[in-house]
Amino acid sequence: MVRLIISCMDYRLSQEVMNRVKSENDIIIRNAGANIYELKGRLKGINVGEVIFLPHTDCAAMKLVNSAIKDGKEVDKEIEDMLVSQFRGKEFSSLQELEKLNAEIGEKMLKEIFPNAKITTELIDVNKIIKIPQKKTRYYLLKPQTRYNEEIIGSYIIQAFSKEDVTADIKIAESLGLKLEKSELDY
């Protein structure tokens, strides 16, 4: 059975993601905010028996969404279309509520995309992660089957089938001041 693990690209989550990998056949997808909306089209072509969905607290992508909606901060059109727009018109009064809403919206989409799969959603509280790696100001673009080594841990990791699937995420990484360290992805 193929398992799909979807998480945010945040550097603090790499070990959490790897702790959930059980097989070399497991597929890992990571992007800004564990954003299912951006992935909908690509995910429909995958046959999986189980999905592990891992959004998290203190998420920079959700902070970006919050400031765009609540403070009127202008964002790149692609980031608006791929990330922010799905939250417009939704009720939330705090970042914490938005993070829960992100988990709920993502889980609902996953149930529609994979009606026969077991879906497990866990909103990871980053304050409860025991060993947070030292943050590195770089990011990696990796294929879904790539596993991490010590060199990668502490970096932001975007994992996808194609670079075109994550162009908004690359813009977000660069807006955070991160530099591309390595890319395994092609357009």
Q: What's the CATH topology name?
A: Beta-carbonic Anhydrase, Chain A
Average pLDDT for all residues = 96
Largest sheet: 4 strands, parallel
DSSP, total strands = 7
- How large is the radius of gyration? 15 Å
Give the name of the CATH architecture: 3-Layer(aba) Sandwich
Biggest β-sheet: strands ordered side by side in the sheet: 2-1-3-4
Taking pLDDT < 50 over at least 5 consecutive residues as the criterion, the unreliable ranges are none
Shape: globular
Q: What is the distance, rounded to the nearest whole angstrom, between the alpha carbons of the first and last residues? A: 28 Å
Order of helices and strands: EHEHEHHHEEEHE
CATH class category name: Alpha Beta
Can you count the helices?
A: 6
Helix coverage percent: 25-40%
Q: What is the domain tally?
A: 1
Strand content: 15-25%
Secondary structural class:
alpha/beta
Layout of SSEs?
Blueprint: E1 3-8, H1 14-20, E2 27-31, H2 36-43, E3 50-54, H3 60-70, H4 77-82, H5 95-113, E4 118-121, E5 138-142, E6 156-159, H6 167-175, E7 179-183
Parallel strand pairs: 1-2, 1-3, 3-4, 5-6, 5-7
Helix pairs in contact: 2-5
Question: What attributes characterize this protein structure?
Answer:
single chain; 187 residues; alpha/beta; Beta-carbonic Anhydrase, Chain A; four-stranded parallel β-sheet; three-stranded parallel β-sheet; 6 helices; 18% strand; carbonate dehydratase activity; Carbonic_anhydrase_sf
